[in-house]
TrEMBL record:
Lineage: Bacteria, Pseudomonadati, Pseudomonadota, Gammaproteobacteria, Enterobacterales
GO molecular function, one term: methyltransferase activity
Keyword Lipoprotein: no
Alphabetic keyword roster: Methyltransferase, Transferase, tRNA processing
Record EC number: 2.5.1.-
Reactions it catalyzes: carboxy-S-adenosyl-L-methionine + 5-hydroxyuridine(34) in tRNA = 5-carboxymethoxyuridine(34) in tRNA + S-adenosyl-L-homocysteine + H(+)
Listed InterPro entries: CmoB (IPR010017), Mo5U34_MeTrfas-like (IPR027555), SAM-dependent_MTases_sf (IPR029063)
One of the GO BP terms on file: methylation
Name of the protein this chain belongs to: tRNA U34 carboxymethyltransferase
Subunit structure: Homotetramer.
Pfam families from the UniProt entry: Methyltransf_9
Gene name as annotated: cmoB
Transmembrane helix recorded as keyword: no
Amino acid sequence: MIDFGRFYQQIATGPLSHWLDTLPAQISEWKSNELHGGFKSWGKMLDNLPSMTPTYLDLKNSVTASRDPELSSGETRRLNNILEQLKPWRKGPFSLYGVNIDTEWRSDWKWDRVLPHISPLKGRLVLDVGCGSGYHMWRMLGEKASFVVGIDPTQLFLCQFEAVRKLLGDDQRAHLLPLGIEQLPALNAFDTVFSMGVLYHRRSPLDHLWQLKNQLVSEGELVLESLVIEGDEFQCLIPGERYAQMRNVYFIPSAKMLKVWLEKCGFVDVRIVDQAVTTLEEQRRTEWMKTESLAEFLDPNDQSKTIEGYPAPLRAILVARKP
């Protein structure tokens, strides 16, 4: 069983200490009632994974760890086999001691679009909402963030994160909690909050923006990345049952409308810093994620549309400040 005790100890003093009023009970309930059917076998894979201390570690340009001397071919095969048991790997890529996890998403490309536009993360306390397997959390540490907390209720992602952590020398500067943003109290503690790829899954997007604001210190920075459509501040797509085969997509505003939403929630200095169409090179099927991906979600005769006839995925990055 994954142990959160070390995280509790780390936050016992400092700006997150009041989180301990609610968090241990939530985690205890999660352990008692909400474990996924595959969690036990994923936990076994974690137990079988060797602890590693890298000789070489790069979190600045990638998530890469290697050792001198290198692993033997047999050790590499064993490592590869264990990590394959944690498929599908959606966010990455990772290069770990000769095992290259080619994930569905080239999350490094998104990071390259985000990084030039945000305040330096050096020394910052950071929250990553809907963090997936935690790829971007490691890149945040590569930018010298002092401490990174990720939240994501998907339990496979938690196990993937813990597997990577074990292979990066049991790094305790980052922690992933199996929670959704709605389970967090108003912590008002983080210098930077990221919400990337979450907003369109929320039934009440303005509530989500308020929840994000409530995690930030005064003068803290929100980095918001989401699906958008082309158009002015009055344009918003409300898809039917599915959008690009996803069931739980509720609102896809234009980037300009999203800016208005942020201002409505009291954010200031709101900037649209990037818009990019998601390409078949950025999101695709791989050996580490073999089910359907973007190519199957687009109209085969017109890739500017989803299979349902909506505009194809366009993503925007906005940066805003809590006054």
